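Help needed: design a sequence for this.
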């Protein structure tokens, strides 16, 4: 069997790794891939969607799995399906659940999904006037479009809020992503991530995870794409899960059916949990990164078999190991702002836990850094503390210039 995985990060390396664990004979291709994916498959230098479709046809690819959100929002699924090619991911219409926070918020409110109160704005003046009417801060301001996980800002007062909407809407800090903004009620509590797979009829949730988004220890500093994850989330109880199913998963499932949003793919629920219940902050419509790297090593089931069943509209179950993971991201110093690339990474051969490359490429005689988030080290244990120790013991074996990581991933 031939499988094409679209993307070049740690998420795609982890998906390929899990498929290979369960199906060693599967032939993997990655677009564009990285130094890690090159070890388990073939990296192809194609990113144009039409060219990717031609590659899949010409090479008789049996299944394509899409990692990043941008390709989904740009309609890769529609392009592939028009040619009769099997592909796992939402079509362009359904991808708006992530591609437009305005679209997603309207969907939540229409279908009774429990979420924070919010208003959406297309014009700076309207957003400014609404902020002037608000008496209680903090509030949350979100760029509606895709902003690589960085388009959400919590503001403490009106002056900060006015500056943020000016940056987003007038100065285009996030490009076209900030053309529209969502101004949302701030919810206290703790966050939780739940990945799931949708087969067009039912949503099957994965185990919970806890993401650490900020660059600094103690959740301080700038937002990043994620500096580490633990799974399962130690704060998320069985009662929380029941509330999630009743107030979020089930209304989402009914809403998808009512709207005719029929696809096989991932739905990622970003949750906020407090004394008032479980709230949905956002949908993503692809495997989270780095949540995927923490969750897949705990999966007993065959991921490829699950995805194939979902694409065929068949029912499936997922079973999990009774263990914990702690995924710690090693980043380039300066990330998420300016950072240098091209530093040799040493010690990877000494690591004895799952390791997923994110931003590194192979040269003739070395593996060198090529991105902000460089690699993910995943400790596994019978307790969270064991998993943390395993992750950090293995990080100590790796070295590259200006390497940076948080030392508090998994501390509750």
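Sure. Designed sequence:
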């Amino acid at each position: 069997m031939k499988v094409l995985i679209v993307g070049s990060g740690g998420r795609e390396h982890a998906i390929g790794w899990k498929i290979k664990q369960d199906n060693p004979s599967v032939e993997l291709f990655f677009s564009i891939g990285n130094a890690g994916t090159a070890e388990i498959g073939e990296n192809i230098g194609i990113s144009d969607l039409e060219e990717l479709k031609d590659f899949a046809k010409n090479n008789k690819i049996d299944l394509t799995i899409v990692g990043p959100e941008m390709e989904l929002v740009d309609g890769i699924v529609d392009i592939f399906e028009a040619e009769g090619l099997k592909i796992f991911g939402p079509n362009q219409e359904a991808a708006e659940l992530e591609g437009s926070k305005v679209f997603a918020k309207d969907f939540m409110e229409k279908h009774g999904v429990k979420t924070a109160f919010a208003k959406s704005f297309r014009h700076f003046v309207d957003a400014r006037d609404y902020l002037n009417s608000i008496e209680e801060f903090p509030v949350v301001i979100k760029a509606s479009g895709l902003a690589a996980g960085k388009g959400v800002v919590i503001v403490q007062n009106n002056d900060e809020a006015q500056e943020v909407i000016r940056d987003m809407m007038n100065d285009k800090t996030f490009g076209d992503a900030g053309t529209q903004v969502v101004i949302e009620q701030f919810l206290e509590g703790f966050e939780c991530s739940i990945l799931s797979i949708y087969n067009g009829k039912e949503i099957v949730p994965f185990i919970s995870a806890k993401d650490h988004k900020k660059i600094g220890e103690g959740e301080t500093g700038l937002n990043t794409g994620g500096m580490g994850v633990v799974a399962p989330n130690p704060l998320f109880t069985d009662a929380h899960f029941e509330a999630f199913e009743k107030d979020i998963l089930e209304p989402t499932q009914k809403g998808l059916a009512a709207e005719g949003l029929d696809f096989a793919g991932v739905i990622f629920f970003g949750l906020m949990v407090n004394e008032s219940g479980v709230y949905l902050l956002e949908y993503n419509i692809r495997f989270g990164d780095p949540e995927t790297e923490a969750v897949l090593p705990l999966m007993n089931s065959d991921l490829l078999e699950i995805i194939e069943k979902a694409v065929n509209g068949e029912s499936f179950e997922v079973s999990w190991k009774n263990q914990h993971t702690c995924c710690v991201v090693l980043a380039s110093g300066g990330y998420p702002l300016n950072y240098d690339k091209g530093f040799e990474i040493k010690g990877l051969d000494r690591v004895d836990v799952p390791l997923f490359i994110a931003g590194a490429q192979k040269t003739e005689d070395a593996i060198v850094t090529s991105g902000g988030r460089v690699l993910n080290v995943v400790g596994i244990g019978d307790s969270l503390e064991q998993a943390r120790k395993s992750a950090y013991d293995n990080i100590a074996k790796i070295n590259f210039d200006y390497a940076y990581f948080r030392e508090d991933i998994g501390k509750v």
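Residues 239 and 348 are 41 Å apart (CA to CA).
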